Amino acid sequence: MGNWTLHWLDATGDLSAWKDRITGQINDAYHAMSPFVRPSEMDVLIERGNETVVPETGMSANVTRANLATLIFDPYNENFTRTLTSGLVQRQMVNTAHRAMRAAGPGYGFTLGGAMVSEGLAGQFVRLVFDSPLEPWDCAFDDDQLSAQWPDQRSMMSPKFDHGEWFSGSGTRPRWLGYTMGTRIVENWLLSGADLSPERLISVPAPKVLNAVAVQSLVS
Questions:
Q1: Which structural domain range is residue 137 located in?
Q2: For 6, 42, 116, 159, which has the most beta carbons within 10 A of its beta carbon?
Q3: CA distance 194 to 173
Q4: Nearest Cα residue to 119 out of 15, 111, 72, 6
Q5: 44 φ/ψ angles, rounded to the nearest 5 degrees
Q6: Are 122 and 208 in the same domain?
Q7: Are 119 and 102 in contact (CB under 8 A)?
Q8: What are 131's strand-pairing partners?
Q9: What is the tally of structural domains in the chain?
């Protein structure tokens, strides 16, 4: 399909019963994204697994490098069937493609703040393409909760951060905190009058987003 080549891996299990449906939804994602930006060339590995999927969706989507992504599905997950019928596969594929294109451009994020910006931009790009609401991980905390957890400027600019702790809850931080903070950062950047063009959502350097709004004003 265009610039995306799918590779079905079998070592971890068989997905053949769902192959046509998943392929169709990835194809739909490609065609939904294409009017906004030309998707870059990318190999997409698709495999079966259970340990690394998001429990609430039964799937995960990861970017290994600018031209390589991995989708993992767990058919035994209780939410897997809903994921295949809710449009989430399409949205996650566009989100993944956005992150891959940023990796090839300004970079996914070399600091904590940069990673938050990239995740916030990816979510915003998905909403632009599909006119969809926020995903649960993009709005998992209210203003008071965000304010209590907000990192100081030194932490935001540090290249030494634990991505799993801030985004997946593998440490002391609550799960999805980084995604919600990234959403808020990008929302405030857009409110400052930033260009909402699809190309800008991919190519804008993270420091320009972070510098456009004062950290103190991101949450009430």
A1: 112-217
A2: 116
A3: 30
A4: 111
A5: -120, 115
A6: yes
A7: no
A8: none
A9: 2
Alpha helices by DSSP H, the chain = 19-33, 80-85, 88-104, 112-130, 143-149, 153-156, 163, 177-191, 198-203, 206-212
Residue that terminates a domain, selected from 71, 104, 137: 104
**What pTM did the predictor assign?**
0.94
Tens-place pLDDT, residues 73-116: 999 999 999 999 999 999 999 999 999 999 999 999 899 999 99
Tokens representing 22 are 């998943």
Mark whether 91 and 157 lie in a shared domain: no
- Nearest Cα residue to 206 out of 128, 124, 111, 126: 111
Alpha-carbon distance 180 to 44, whole Å? 26
| Segment 147-184, tens digit of pLDDT | 999 999 999 999 999 999 999 998 889 999 999 999 99
